[in-house]
Specification:
α4 packs across α5. It contains five helices and five strands, in the order αααβββαββα. It is an alpha+beta fold. It is globular. The longest helix has 22 residues. The protein has a five-stranded antiparallel beta sheet. Bound molecules: zinc ion.
Amino acid sequence: MGGAPTANALRSTAMATPERAADFAGSPDAFERLWTPHRMVYIDGDRPSAEAGEGCPFCAAPARTDAEGLIVARGRLCYVVLNLYPYNPGHALICPYRHVARYLDLTAPELEEFTELTRATIQALESASSPMGFNVGMNQGAVAGAGVQAHLHQHVVPRWGGDSNFLPVIAQTKALPALLEDVRSRLQAAWPG
Ligand SMILES: [Zn+2]
């Protein structure tokens, strides 16, 4: 149990049917320096739009069901979604519903809920998967590495030593979209309050 994926798991992942990136929320470029081909096999290469609406993954996700949109929690002004391009299982994004690009664009009530949902995400991850640490933050603008720079999102990435013994081993037996749904439902079940 645990540890790196086996060769069989990698083969089965490679044979997974590609899914349209536009059907999920995600931020493709934030961790581009870390080349992780297993994250890319099911992406067909669609680039997200900078316009608000269906072409923007963070505008489109809330209109879907939680399972279809990979949504973990919905607030009044902001929501939490799993990243389609996870650096680690449980890599979540906190987004305002409004299509705004900058942290400074958030209204005071949006900022309050953005912060509260960030806290709740960390709490849920601690409860669901006992990470040893977190990376939390925003990439503002393409120059800073934002994959979808037009729609603000805060990354919460759980970290483990070696980053391999995570939300156990389902990665070895299921293709990544199924893994994402397992992680999503676990996080939703662990959501505080
Ligand atoms: Zn948007």
